[in-house]
Automatic annotation (TrEMBL):
Coiled coil: none annotated. It comes from the Eukaryota. The keyword Mitochondrion does not apply. It holds the Pfam family Sulfotransfer_1. This is Sulfotransferase. GO terms for biological process: sulfation.
Amino acid sequence: SHDVEESWDDEFQQLVQTFPKDKSFTGMNLYFFQGFWCPSIVLKAVISCQKHFQASDSDILIATLPKCGTTWLKALTFSTLYLSQFARENNPLLTYNPHSLVRFIDYDFYLNDTCPDLENCTLYQPRLFSIHLPYASLPTSIKDSNCKIVYLCRNPMNTLISFWSFFSRLRGEGFEPVSLDEAFEMFCQGINEFGPFFDHVLGYWRASQEKSSKILFLQYEDLKEDINSHLKKLAMFLGVPFTEEEEKQGVVEEIAKICSFENMKDLEVNKKGAQTFGYPQETFSGKTKTFVIPREAFFRKAKTGDWSNYLIPSMVERLEKLIQEKLDNSGLTF
Ligand code: A3P
């Protein structure tokens, strides 16, 4: 299998040479691949995952762009889906970061071209995974099977500010973000991790309109406004609706509270240590590739209008125009 891996490595090296390259405003190198900007550190895993991942009809997939509320959605979906599988006072979220409980299919498992033992990689059944890939680039078996997808997006202004702040905070830890001016420009041009932003959002939006039983399309701002009704919607969609009894006992409110920003950011597990993505394995560059993010960086402000503290009026005007142009006639609004 060593030879197989080496020849895949050669093949990959050849392949990437054909892709356009750029640098994200976060400092990450990006390759333009299948119509989106893929971080170079995960591209190989993405391709392997596309080749090998076999979805099963019972799988649940969380899909997001980075900084759109992935951590929150992982917590909400985990708690709802597995409600009957752990004692309520022992929710694993109290002792584990959501990214430890719900792994990314591509870069947590496929840094080499080998098929990992995915049967035993989730704590509970049905399997729950997450992914940042655009809809069009999902492994075929995900699109062709009956597995369900929960998609969460966020107002582009909030997303941009969250993105830029996150990586500014990680400066010196392998990320060298640029000024907000430059970041803004690149975001508008669609050059950021798994972007263009609007292609990502519209890809899932259209798919959800065609197959509403397969894809649940959610918006961060709506969840902030009314978490309880969205939790019920989520549970219904996942096929585990809350019983009348559970609702009477306040289970919905309990999940909302455990997963709330205020609760999660103050948990011991989220205040210290770091989250490792990927397993330590050799990659095409010959270096060990995992990336490590301090857990507290996943919890910043969780506000919906924080962009107004950063974006100057001309930026807001330009983004509003872009939103209008891109979402025109789609039925989607921010
Ligand atoms: P801000 O930077 O605006 O504060 P992701 O999880 O996709 O990386 O997204 C991160 C954003 O979600 C950050 O937004 C973060 O503060 C916010 N967030 C993290 N945990 C949250 C929670 N439990 N509820 C609501 N928002 C949360």
